[in-house]
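To fix ideas, we give here one paired sequence and structure record:
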Amino acid sequence: MPDTAAPAYIDTTKASIARVYDAALNGKDNYEVDREVVQRLQQIAPEIGQFTWDHRNFLIRVTRFIASQAGITQFLDCGSGLPTAENTHQVAQRLQPEARVVYVDNDPVVLAHGRALLVENDQTHFSGADIFEPRQTLSDPIVRKHLDFSQPLALFQLGTLHHYDGERSPASIMQEYIDALPSGSYVAFSHFLDPENEYTEVAKRMEQIFVHSPLGSGWFRTRDEIQVMLPGLELVDPGLTQCVDWWPDGPQLKPLEPAQHCILGAVGRKP
């Protein structure tokens, strides 16, 4: 997207998390500042596109599991990003036609796409709340209107908290969300990983590019630091693992690229 075509309310001098993600997926809803971040990442991790697709495919498999095996029909997808192929509502509603999905994101470009979703699907809704403020999100009128918190639901925090740069601990944010969920709910979660092994150098170099780019965030935490963000949950086998290894659709014949070792995902059930 040429910068000159950007709406006046979009600052094209600052990268957007959703647009950088879109650029890594070869989407069209991004600007030069977003593509610059991806290009810098490609210099140290040429497989960054595969890294990003692994994460998108993790979301698809997680949604499929929660909708089909767990039978959940309401989804709160935080930090949903830009709509691409196979969004949460498409996967869930293919398996559970009555499924309701509320996306939450306060990026102006994402909000514009979210409004378009409202036109095409009356069971898919969009909130502009701040996902790093659980009380704001959980009390949002759109969230409360379309999701019933007396019944189990699915909370998605996929690729979000590694971009949080506030004063609270990420674990306390997740604790507040999990406390608000009824018993039988599911949480899907993913986070950039410092694997503390031979791939740590790749993780550290990627983190430097994320944090010191126009994006300004993207921290790679250790397994122990990530584990505490899933308090009180019963993790579905295989637990907290590399996203590419969470119930893959087929055997992994090729060795993983270095960056593929640097993101973890999990699904947990609240007892």
Notes: Residues 22 and 46 are 16 Å apart (CA to CA). The longest strand covers residues 186-192.
